[in-house]
């Protein structure tokens, strides 16, 4: 009889621990704490999938993970060409699988990375070449400058893009 009682106690303890773990995971998922699907901060990683939301010309979400393109700057939605830049990015990624190599850095809620279509098209090069984003030499080292057009050179140049 004693072994049955001990077995029931173990089962209750296990279920209590399981419920507590479930509660803590639920709290972490809603409190801004890193979730299971988030890459670890400071660790480069790769994600792939379909774009679930385009925020603007240099930021979108892949499988609900926000990604900010490294080394370029697209105009804000309230700036000239901001909405056109967002619409162009939507057109580039619509129905396409993307692959993003994340640097391990974050800016606000967004992971920083370089993103490509499955066929290898560099999305940063594409949006700059369309004249709807600029090279950000502080972070790119001038990588995207050769792709700038006359229009992209007239876009706002954010102070954070200036080399130190």
UniProtKB/TrEMBL annotation:
<keyword id="KW-0378">Hydrolase</keyword>
<dbReference type="InterPro" id="IPR016071">
    <property type="entry name" value="Staphylococal_nuclease_OB-fold"/>
</dbReference>
<dbReference type="GO" id="GO:0004519">
    <property type="term" value="F:endonuclease activity"/>
</dbReference>
<dbReference type="InterPro" id="IPR035437">
    <property type="entry name" value="SNase_OB-fold_sf"/>
</dbReference>
<keyword id="KW-0732">Signal</keyword>
<dbReference type="Pfam" id="PF00565">
    <property type="entry name" value="SNase"/>
</dbReference>
<protein>
    <submittedName>
        <fullName>Endonuclease YncB(Thermonuclease family)</fullName>
    </submittedName>
</protein>
<keyword id="KW-0540">Nuclease</keyword>
<dbReference type="GO" id="GO:0016787">
    <property type="term" value="F:hydrolase activity"/>
</dbReference>
<feature type="signal peptide">
    <location>
        <begin position="1"/>
        <end position="36"/>
    </location>
</feature>
<keyword id="KW-0255">Endonuclease</keyword>
<feature type="domain" description="TNase-like">
    <location>
        <begin position="45"/>
        <end position="134"/>
    </location>
</feature>
